[in-house]
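Our consortium's second objective concerns turning raw sequence data into structural hypotheses that experimental partners can test. To show how far this objective has progressed, the report includes one record in full. It was chosen at random from the queue rather than selected for favorable results. The single chain below, 646 residues long, was entered without modification.
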Amino acid sequence: MARSLEQLQKQYNKKAAAMRMGGGPRGPRISGGGKMKNARGTIARMLGYLKPYRFRLVAVVICMLCSTVTGLFGSYMLGPIINKLTAFVSPDKKYDMSAMEKIAEKIIAVFTGPIGENATRSDLMGYIVSVISILAVIYAVGIISNFLQARLMLSISQGSIQTIRNDLFTKLQRLPVRYFDQNPTGEIMSRFTNDIDNIDVMINNSLTSLFSGAIQLVGTFVFMITTNWVLTMITVVFIPIFALGGGAIAKVSSKYYSGQQAALGAVNGYTEETVTGQKVVKVFNHEQICIDEFDALNDDMRDKQFRAQFWGGVMGPIMGNTSQISYAVTIGVGGILMIFGKLSAGALTIFANYSRQFSMPINMLSQQTSTLFAALAGAERVFEVMDTAPEAPDSPDAVEEPIQGEVVLNDVTFGYVPEKTVLKHISLYAHPGQKIAFVGSTGAGKTTVTNLLNRFYDIDQGEITIDGRSIKDYKRDFLRENIAMVLQDTHLFTGTVKENIRYGRLDATDEEIVAAAKTASAHSFIMRLENGYDTVLEGDGANLSQGQRQLLNIARAAVSKAPILVLDEATSSVDTRTERHIEHGMDRLMKNRTTFVIAHRLSTVRNSNAIMVLENGEIIERGDHDQLLEMKGRYYELYTGVKELD
């Protein structure tokens, strides 16, 4: 039965993560969403990424000014031409000329010479050709300015995005394991793709539109007021209509963009999880349920995207039609002024052009609303990750002392969430070179012990020491360098077999890598690969069997010189024959290392120095294999099959 939309949102929404209620780090998720929390702070932080490029931004503004002025003044140069043509056709009609018209006429006269009222048709043709040549030069300067502006802005946007992406990835490396347990992989990936892409579009396009729109708005107003102040006031009257209309639409649309981004993250999270678990989906014939659940999430995203895009897109047409009304009124009044000789034909023509241009920046800015809100919503999600508390810093007195492997857990109590205790007053010790095994039912807390040993999580009560020193007194990186792990869930990186084994110790030689592979019984199958140790693995080693992937995982641990070794179900994915080979290799691997083994196959723990039987977070039995069998308790039940594992 497919889950409801509410359940899916709870489980896959970006704020849905919470801790698993016992037995491990995942748990019931809490729904979230809503409006942007701090738009002003988000904008300030985004502008902070532009600060290193402030000189380029100054150059961009200069190019914008040059482009705007050349465009506006180029239009103004048409005024004298129209006036000359009007005077040639109707020499008796006189019009008042504005100050800017007189300036433009004087500039043209510098290149063409004065043209009187008795100019011939030939003189007028030469005049027009000269003005067109001047206009060509003016517009060429504008084109060059636009090119430089676009080139500079592209470098600014790409540099800023590169820094944001680096900061986000760097922060992810410093976040605790708890964060990745709480948040779906697809949701985290959406920060790097959709959210950062939206920021990129905003910086490269919207920011440019904001700057150039503001400059063009001011420049157009200056040219309009110098042409005719009456018509300018009529145009300005419509500004409050633009502002009120745009503000009302923006207020409605802004609340939908955060919901759109959250819904997108939920779809990404569900898609990533379903694709990763596709084999499980097919084994249990779960395809139709997955289709139904994805359809519910996709419908929800469609609805939210529709509302966001509708209100973002409706602003342009509304503002555009409002500007047409302003244009019509302005031209009507201008025509009346022209009839009474208060406005020249050239002035009315260029003012009509400026009146349309005056609304263009407002329309352009309004059309960027959807991009701006999408970018702000995405930026807030990115900064939310950056603001997540990282792993607790090392204490100033943290040390890097050689570790022998004496491990002691003293009265350790821990829970992933306060209301659910996973480990209860656990005490044990392991001398250097000893092998300690943990067995018990699923969810008993076995893996949790190893998570605490690596300081993936910090304990609530008690103390864990290595060589008599609390693990909190060691530098965290140094501590983890001295603990090698073989996890049940293998992960191989894109690269060669050799590089994947060397991941355990980056300075390992090729000879040490081969020796580690032989220890893990992986050498023989590696040599049968197409290029041996230089075979490139992709897709998490998709071209290898699960058992082969686990052997490489074991070889990775074998190449490490860590004195402490953790094996979490290390042989769970291999067959019995391979398991025997691994056991021999493990005996060599574990020699002189303190080893903690978690296993359901009890045959792999028989030779342990001590076996801890955990149930409900407590050690209920301890001893070696023979001692526990003699006790005929829980271990006896598990080993003999008198009572199966839960």
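The partners drew two points from this record. Residues 121-174 form the longest helix (54 residues). The longest strand covers residues 407-414. Both points have been shared with the crystallography group to help prioritize constructs.
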